[in-house]
Write a structure and sequence with these properties.
Organism: Streptomyces thermospinosisporus
Order of helices and strands: HHHHHHHHHHHH
Number of strands: 0
Largest sheet: none
Keywords: Membrane, Transmembrane, Transmembrane helix
Helix content: over 70%
Distance between the termini: 50 Å
Protein name: DMT family transporter
Shape: globular
Structural class: mainly alpha
Number of helices: 12
Length: 299
Amino acid sequence: MSVLVLVLAVSAACCLGFGFVLQQNAAQRAPLGDFLSLRLLADLMRMPRWLGGTALMVAGMGLGAAALGQGELSLVEPLLATNLLFALTLSRRQTRQPLGRQGWAGLALLAGGVTAFVVAGEPAGGHAVTDPVRHWLIIGGMLALALLLTGCARRVRLTLGPVLLAVAAGTLYGVQDALTRVSGQRFADGGFAALMSGWQPYAVLVLGVTALVLVQSAFETAPLRMSLPALTAAQPLAGIVCGVGILGDRLRTDAGSLGWEAGGLAAIVLGVLLLGLHPAMPPGTQRPKPGASELELLP
């Protein structure tokens, strides 16, 4: 792993983590009637804190794209998952909660899981898969999963809805990262004309806006501890699937390596959950329980 990729990916994670906290601080004040609507973004654009968080998020995505241009998707995605460490750092300043055993355990699991996966898997670049059927099967499966989760979230918006929306958004961000890598390769091979002649950059934009609406709707309806862990865990899993299935990223596949890779991913997910559920994460504004007031918001 090159130092440049490490610096770019961790810097991206830092910007994303800080940005998510600032966005959720603002989104929790948005009206519930904006749920899963572009009106939500219009309302949030009036809030300076949300604009600051979005600027950090855009910077994080730019740094992540630069990291993807220098390293494999299967390497960069686990490093981006460390954004939760930075989110927790900012949240601790807001809530003044100590880390405690849960926080230290989450940090150890997340850091150890990333290290175990990268060392055991030794992600390396390969030849991109050229079979369009395989591309669309993987991308279509991811999009179908996100659509299904979003549909279910509409029915349980104030209970499990934020978690489902966060998983859907993380899935879309994983696909977006893969298409960002493809767009970078097209630009490197043929310049701006080659980049804009493909469908990938336009898909990156659509996926980004769609995922943003999903994330802000999740932030709007529940505390950060309910949505950010699911988002942080889903993105690298979806990205690794796309990296191996579409971009041809190679991981070691002997029995021992596969065991460590699976254990590393499991540790990442568990560490993300422990950190996301930590008391230092801002609890957000209490929303009314589902009832007559919520039924009035249903289309």
